[in-house]
Structures
1.
Amino acid sequence: MFIRSFYYTFLQLIRQKTMLFWNLCFPLLLGTMYNVAFGGLAADEAFHAIPVAVVTTEVENDYGFSDTIRLLSEEGEDQFLDATFTTEEEAHSLLEKKEVIGILYGGSPITLTVSAEMTTFKLEQSILSAFVEQYNLNITAITDIAVNHPENLSDAIRQLGLKTDYLTETSYSDGNLDEKLTYFFNLIAMSCLYAYMSGIVAVTNSQANLSALGARRCISPVNKMLSLFAELCAGILYQFLCTATSLLYMIFVLKIDFGSELFYVLLAAFVGCTTGVSAGFFIGSFGKMSVGMKNGIMMAITMICSFLSGLMVGGMRILVAQICPWFNHVNPAALISDSFYALSVYRSHDRYFLNLATLLVLSALFYLGGFLLVRRKKYAAL
Amino acid sequence: MNTPVIKIENLVKRYHELVALDHFNLEIEEGEIFGLLGPNGSGKTTTINCILSLLSYDKGSIQVFGKEMHPDSYDIKRQIGVVMQNVAVFDELTVYENIDYFCGLYVKDKTLRKQYVEEAIDFVGLNEFRKFYPKKLSGGLLRRLNIACGIAHKPKLIFLDEPTVAVDPQSRNKILEGILELNRQGATIIYTSHYMEEVEQICTRIAIMDKGKNLAIGTKEELKQMIKKSEIISVDILDIAEEDINAIRKLPHVYDVIFANHQLQVLCSGGKHNLIRVLDYLQSRDLSFGRVYSELPTLNDVFLEITGKELRD
């Protein structure tokens, strides 16, 4: 009986187009959109070479100004300037057309002209100004040393070539600290919690006071709890397959880093789906509310949990931890996404298993509550 | 004497202040097509749900196949088939899969189940639609699928709760023929409806229910004999004098005479040859008349006389 109930429930679930959209297509679409959005954000944040016009004379060439500019304009990952060597008249024309951000004049010292109208390029203007200042300081220092202490000139040039960092960057793990990952972790958490739909369907179809189908099954010579258990198992498997598909798509197509332990990632998703089904089962067991209303309540709970876990605003979980610390320890979405976080960033199994254990306790409580509500064999009214 | 298939004694079911079943008694014998006739809200479905152990009740006892019925009485449940008032099938399963699923709740043997499913599909005439999903079926075909899901496992006792509601005449006839065939195959059938014509057509015994009470029980002939009116003779006539009306009123078995809109209605209670006696009188008085027809009482007349209201009120 278990196998037949399991098989037919699974068959029904995979044929429900609405559920298939929410449980499979929606996470895939949202994941793709996140990827596009964050990809664009990264591109915006990348440094681009600053276009400048350069006006030089014969004398300046002797001091190596032109060579320095050419060196800094060489194409590559660390290209600093996009220089156009030109006449003063043409340089002003380029600045007016906003084709360059500033004009560098050779000489001693070198000077910079920028346009006050180009307000959106303040950062680039500041960078050029800092460059000019630093260049002039270095030239002055070299000239002074050459005149006053020529014996130290080679040491001075070597020192100027060195850059001293007084701060060192250290990492607590070899994991990925990319903040955008949390959005994908929360997306998978939300997908897991969408399993509530299967839980609601299972309980509605098995209770005589909730549907005609439930009544028909209650009058059959089959143990109600056994068939209900089979349906809940089918719901978990169905949702896990949907979530696993989304996960694999993100890992292998979108190249999102969920850590190197795929088995543990899938295990967290499986436990998350179990929690989702249990929550749906629990809410679905309540009285004679319509299925639509129960789905609405569960959708609202899922979205609130996901929001507070950081699905829409990256730092939300930290904010929740400051205001209401206990909530992150009972919020299923936060627990699921934190499991992925523990694997990907901390590479910590302790934290990962603590999250999974909490999810399993939550599931057990939901299942217990649900079974207490549906244990009746006769009803006062249908 | 055989043990009744169903025996209900003194059943009381209350929904808060409302008494849905009021000391209800019923016995149904094997092989019957038993009709539970009553208006909406009379307690027909509540009776069935109590028998099936879906509803709890306040007082009384219910025995099915001679045993007390409980939710865990799987041996009894295995012999029962139910066709619910509301269509109860899975939208995501095909016609074949739905019948196979519900049959599988009763029949474990795969080969036997396959045979039963095929026979059920044949029985309700859904052969051409076996791969259709319920949403693609018309109302009548959906009702037939609902029936097939309830009877595929060949139960000995079948409950049909208003199976022809919102069904086209063709499907209705098919369903009624099917019920008679199930009975011929040996099933005892309990049929609830507020369509008196259907009950009259197929039921061997009928109980008339109202307000949770069993008002009358018997064959349709027995029920009709319980009421005063047994025949209405209608005669189209241009005019008739008051003295003639009084004279007709004095004929044997006539208990009332009404003349309105050029039609004379003579209400008789029992007796034979009432029509001939009325026509003889009219001819003897040289009264010319047109169409003449005689109507026997219907179950609606029975219901009207017993409860004081129409069946579909």
Note: Chain A has two domains: 2-36+179-374, 48-161.
2.
Amino acid sequence: MAKEKSIPFYIGIGIVSFLLVVMLISIFYTPHDPNAMDSTNRLAAPSLEHPFGTDNFGRDILSRVMEGSQTAFIIGISAVSIGLIIGFILGASAGYFGGWVDEIISRFIDAMLAFPGILLAIMLIAVFSTGMTNTIIALGIMSIPSFARITRSSFMQYKKYDFVKASIAKGAGSIRIIFHHILPNAISPTLVAVALSFSGAILSESGLSYLGLGVQPPDPSWGRMLKEAQPYITSAPWYVFITGVAITLLVLGFNLLADGLRDKQDKKA
Amino acid sequence: MQTPILSIENMDVSFQLSDGKYKALEDISFSVFPDEVVGIVGESGCGKSLTSQAILGILPKNAQVDHGEIAYKNNNLLEMKENDWQEIRGSALSMIFQEPMTALNPLLTVGKQISEVLKKHTNLSKKTRKQKTISMMKEVGLSRAEELYNSYPHQLSGGMQQRIVIAIALIAEPDLIIADEPTTALDVTIQAQILELFRKLKQYRKTSIIFISHDWGVIRHICDRVLVMYAGRIVEQGSVTEIISNPKHPYTKGLIQSIPDHQKKGEELYTIAGKVPSLKERKGGCPFADRCSSRLDICKQQFPESVVMEGTHTVKCHLYLKGAVETL
Amino acid sequence: MTEALVELENIHKYYKQRRRKLTDKNKYVKAVHGVSFSVKEGESFGLVGESGSGKSTVGQVILQLTDLTQGSVRYRGKDVASFTKRNLKDWRKKVQIVFQDPYASLNPKKTVGWILNEPLTIHKMGDKYYRKNKVLQTLEDVGLDDSYLNRYPHELSGGQRQRVAIASAIILNPEFIVIDEGVSALDVSVQAQILNLLKRLQKKYNLTYLFISHDLNVVQYFCDRIAVMYLGEIVEIGKTEELGTSPRHPYAEALFSSILLHDEEEKRIVLEGDLPNPADPPSGCPFHTRCKYAMNVCRVTKPTTSFFSGEHKVSCHLYNEKDTVRNIT
């Protein structure tokens, strides 16, 4: 077969790695202190000194966007990890054992899905109060159902395969079946879900922060920056623009990545 | 001499793959006469289905006919425009596929799917179309045709679905039907029913059929003449009885001898070493040379000319060319 | 002296059908319905039938890949259900299965070497050196060489894949192998290679085969005895020579007539209708809906098994002393 060339996949990789590099740089270096205020230089237009201008407190927007990328990645990675680990365990047990185990877990997942994701997150935050950690927990819980369902279906699918039956016939136990036979085959659909959930988590975090329910000051967050920029949309449009672009890029990058992964997988199958 | 319904002359088909162009069919020539069933046999990857797709102009996007002529009643099909094609497909030439479930539209009733063909190719009224459809359904062995008219494909068994597919292929009274492994997906007793149906069609309708199969039992049952294909070439052709009782090409011989049956019980089965070469593995000369037990020196260099054995029985093998050593 | 290696007694396997509504009654598909037979050591026993006849389920029941609804499986006289976990694992070394679709029966993410090593690892057989040798020797047994060790299943042809599947089945030195349509997906010339290989291995390692297939030519060539299944029941069982040449049950008769030669065309029997739904099988004899000899008794009572010569058994009212209407020739 011809070697597949998935252009969106490479664009996705490109965007994501670019932002990753930006995030890594920002840990050690930003052009200005992202929290240094300068009341004489509020809402300055882009210049050599401040390539993306300054905000309503005179802080350098470029530095804040760079710093914000850290928050975005931390929240994305942690929330996805929580969702992935719990969702995977739930989905794998439901899919592998079937019967009443599946029945109980599936109903639980259905119940979670009955709430719109963002509403669930808001509810959790309302109970546990705002802040970075709680935002991560809320977003992590929000992404459990999708991981659980994907894992469950691939476990159910591969459990029926002849190579699994042949291995059972050779005396293999559950642990061997799960880790050697099902897991390696279930990884690629899960990777797609990871990429999608990542962008979903970032988008939701921005939404929550925009509502003031997410990351609290002084931690910089793109969503909150967007909210802060809103009153100045006419006087300092670059503020809204650059924050919006940052969010869009990251979400787009992960979505393209997910699409590309899915295409590759479909071609193999 | 009768004029053939369909004749193919020196047709080459190639695939455009990312790393180059590969010949999939080479020098295919054969004719189908009125009221004749021609079988095409060979293993998977030999080009049986590709041949039928070329005839119907439904080759995959990356494949094309490089060379040759496909004549349907003196019209060269290769020069035909898409509109004329659609006129011919379904009315003059029609196709029956292996998997009835995928050949039928799951969202339309079977009656509608059959009468659809009439709507496209005739000016009959709605009522006559329905009448014709129902009588066609009865002809293909669906006795409860009136009841089944409004059912959906998934409500029918595999055998009944295949009967519907056959009814769709027959309703416009085509001159030639191409059936690509039409019984392979069916159970033994259902396969027997469908073969019986084909025999009746041949008897009463006088439709010509190209019957593609890998199963010699089925071929023997239904065909008058048979073409044996190997790696994109027709290596032997002739009447079914002649080919089965007196195969000449080493590949045909090997194929027939390797079929197990109770008479060979206890014996080691004859086998052909190796496997069919893939598109990219094909080399010059006779494609079978690598697997052939009676290979001559010339076989790897040159593809043999066709040799007439007896009547319509021809074979492409150096063993039968003048000057070749008589090793058999 | 040959004795029974595997004995099935009155096997039933019902699958619960998913209920559409909460108020629906539980419905069962009777995949296997009262099947008994025994496979003798060293023989090839053929199980034929169409899709939905339950033949594959029988194979999986023997290997304990699915649980039984009723009945018992005995291996060398011992009830397999009574095995402890330890015994069961040991027993699994002796019974193996080869599936139809060589694409689905090998893990696509593992190399041939890994696949062949797995059974040895599971049973902690020998040291690294022993395992390596064993894998190479088994590869040789199935006609492959060490160049295959690092290849993945998708790099192999159908025949090669099936050889790997066979290798992984024989690597533990089993006594009994279920071959579930093991050659059906292959081209004729490759099929002949695999059949020869199976025969060769049988001789070399004194293997016993349960050969499940819908291809009557293959079964007649390969097997010593044959059982014909219809809708989860065995309708006829006997030596290949007897059953193949003169089947008694009307279903077996029709089945075997489909592979008759050209010159016997007029003897061909074409059955009418389709296989009934296994979830709702006919009353009495399951075949009466398609049988041209069907009598009143067939619609009501299930026929008992009658014997012909020796081991040839048939379940059909035609051969019951009381209501025989047809000459047996």
Note: The interface with chain B takes residues 2-3 of chain A (CB under 8 Å).
